[in-house]
Specification:
Blueprint lengths: L22 H14 L3 H15 L5 E5 L5 H9 L6 E6 L2 H14 L5 E5 L10 E7 L7 H14 L5 E7 L5 H17 L4 H11 L8 H11 L3 E8 L2 E7 L1
Parallel strand pairs: 1-2, 1-4, 2-3, 4-5
Antiparallel strand pairs: 5-7, 6-7
Length: about 240
């Protein structure tokens, strides 16, 4: 199943609405994220590798804020334990409808359960791997500590959380440089300055980025013993936190 080309912000708008994961975004999401997030394909593939290393037999693997299920499918393809299950959760019905089609087409070896819910309100049962792949950044700041604590409490010793986020840098010069490099990456992928500017406006106060230090402090405060940066490009990174 192919996706359309992302041209959502290609025309000048008088009013720019807050970004949301609606039907319009769903239809272009694979194109949008691959052209917007440097290294996204590598991150997805390596989430499968991490899950294969850390998943315990007979446990659940959670993809929290699964969107179209890319991380779900990566885990389902590589985890060797056939008695594991991937539970993919998202609050966008439009995303989950397309995710179900993509998962059915892929026919992964592991069973996949899709759940339409807010990740802040679900219980994690019998978990060994949890993934927040560009999900936490869309939650209000005041809700993030509780979610990370809940995930940590659901995991056993040696289990993992994979956390991928857009970040900001504490040093203003470095932050400006990394943002400029990210915008250059998007231009190189065909986005115009108008598209970049209008999407940035749409995401204002919707995607709230934090520093690496803030993420590390939250993870360690929740009880994760080790926190490792395993991927970073410009102002995007992915962490693996070990319980």
């Amino acid at each position: 199943m192919t996706s359309d080309t992302d041209r959502i912000y290609a025309e000048q708008r008088n009013i720019i609405e807050r970004f949301s994961f609606d039907e319009r975004v769903v239809s272009v999401f694979p194109d949008m994220i691959s052209r917007s997030v440097p290294g996204y394909g590598t991150m997805i593939e390596m989430i499968g590798v991490l899950a294969a290393r850390y998943a315990r037999p007979g446990t659940n693997l959670y993809d929290l804020g699964c969107s179209l299920g890319a991380a779900t499918l990566a885990m389902a393809a590589l985890v060797p334990h056939r008695d594991c299950q991937v539970i993919a959760i998202d609050n966008s019905e439009a995303m989950l409808k397309r995710a179900r089609q993509l998962i059915d087409e892929a026919a992964p070896a592991l069973p996949v359960l899709l759940q339409n819910a807010d990740v802040r309100n679900v219980s994690l049962e019998n978990a060994s791997v949890a993934v927040l792949n560009f999900t936490l950044q869309f939650l209000p700041l005041q809700d993030r500590d509780a979610l990370i604590r809940k995930i940590a409490e659901s995991l056993g010793a040696g289990d993992i959380l994979v956390l991928s986020e857009k970040i900001r840098y504490e040093d203003a010069d470095e932050d400006n440089l990394q943002q400029a490099l990210h915008h250059a990456f998007k231009r190189n992928n065909g986005y115009s300055d108008l598209e970049i500017s209008q999407k940035r406006t749409a995401l204002e106060n919707v995607l709230i980025a934090e520093t690496l230090a803030e993420h590390e402090q939250r993870l360690r405060g929740a009880g994760f013993r080790q926190v490792h940066v395993w991927f970073r490009c410009f102002n995007f990174l992915s962490l693996v936190a070990v319980r």
